[in-house]
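To the wet lab folks,

You asked to see what we're planning to order before we commit. Fair enough. Below is the target structure as tokens, and below that is the sequence we designed to fit it. If anything looks off to you, flag it before the synthesis order goes out.
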């Protein structure tokens, strides 16, 4: 059986694709496409990148996931990996013979596997289960990615100011698509790496789901389309989340009562602020991001998208409306 593994970068529609696969798994199975979660309640199949890390003696870097899975040391991680990979073997052995393609997705693969040693270990792990492995990744324009990433970080408990977050984001190279993509291409080869842009003019039919179906080699017709999942916080909700995070940090607070309180407060804050304005970038910061990441984007364009004049062309400004007049995320030195 061949495999298509979606390297679901955070904030690139990964949850939407995972929900799509779950909602349509029976129809896809009739078409010979096998989608099978070892852990039914977890949409990201993080057991695969975690298993690769464990083989190299590393724990998953996310403290939330370590706490959730009870991974206190490498021995715990290896025991978890062994259990998960044995389950994978059993599930594949029980799959109907009509299945020709297995499909998986994890947004933890990209941030966890960032050098050739880690990616190579992951690739060997995948090839131990499948005859042929193809990887697909969707790349999002960085100015949109940063806004969504900040929203998600705040949702998870970060209380940094937007300016501090952007500085760290750029310094660590999180917006440099080519940096990590080069490592994947060097390990898997470009013939096993499908790179797509999360741009309407670059997606088949201008649609993420239709484009992903094209990668799988199946028609999107007859399949249920999911709603948009995991939307970004509005500015109004984000302000409330920051206030909560400064008093109850989800990453460091182990008290279950406080964690439950934080969950309820955040749920109420998201509902309360749902009608607020969207997060936006001030023009000077937008220009800085595009200028700083422009050279790496050009290298990526030359290598993977030579027919495009520009990887991510500037967006056409929208006509002023209520959202456009809303307060922007102005950089500030005040983190309180």
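Sequence we intend to order:
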């Amino acid at each position: 059986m061949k495999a298509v593994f979606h390297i679901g970068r955070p904030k690139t529609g990964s949850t939407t694709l995972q929900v799509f696969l779950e909602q349509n798994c029976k129809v896809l199975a009739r078409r010979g496409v096998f989608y099978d979660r070892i852990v039914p309640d977890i949409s990201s199949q993080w057991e695969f990148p975690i298993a690769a890390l464990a083989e190299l003696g590393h724990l998953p870097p996310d403290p939330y996931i370590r706490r959730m899975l009870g991974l206190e040391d490498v021995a715990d991680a290896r025991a978890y990996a062994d259990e998960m990979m044995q389950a994978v073997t059993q599930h594949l052995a029980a799959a109907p013979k009509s299945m020709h393609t297995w499909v998986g997705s994890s947004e933890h693969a990209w941030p966890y596997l960032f050098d050739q040693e880690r990616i190579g270990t992951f690739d060997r792990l995948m090839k131990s289960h499948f005859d042929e492995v193809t990887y697909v990744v969707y790349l999002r324009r960085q100015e949109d990615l940063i806004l969504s990433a900040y929203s998600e970080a705040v949702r998870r408990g970060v209380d940094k100011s937007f300016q501090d977050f952007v500085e760290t984001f750029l310094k660590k190279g999180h917006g440099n698509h080519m940096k990590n993509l080069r490592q994947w291409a060097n390990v898997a080869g470009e013939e096993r790496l499908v790179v797509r842009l999360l741009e309407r003019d670059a997606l088949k039919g201008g649609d993420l789901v239709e484009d992903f179906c094209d990668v799988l080699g199946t028609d999107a017709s007859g399949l249920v389309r999911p709603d948009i999942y995991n939307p970004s916080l509005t500015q109004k909700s984000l302000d409330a989340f920051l206030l909560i995070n400064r008093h109850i940090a989800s990453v460091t607070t182990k008290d279950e009562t406080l964690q439950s309180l934080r969950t309820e407060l955040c749920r109420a804050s998201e509902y309360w602020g749902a009608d607020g304005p969207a997060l936006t970038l001030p023009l000077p910061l937008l220009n800085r991001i595009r200028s700083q990441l422009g050279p790496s984007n050009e290298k990526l364009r030359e290598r993977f998208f030579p027919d495009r004049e520009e990887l991510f062309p500037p967006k056409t400004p929208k006509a002023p409306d209520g959202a456009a007049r809303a307060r922007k995320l102005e950089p500030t030195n005040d983190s309180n």
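Structural context that might help your review: Residues 319-336 have pLDDT under 50 and may be disordered. The radius of gyration is 21 Å.

Thanks,
Computational group
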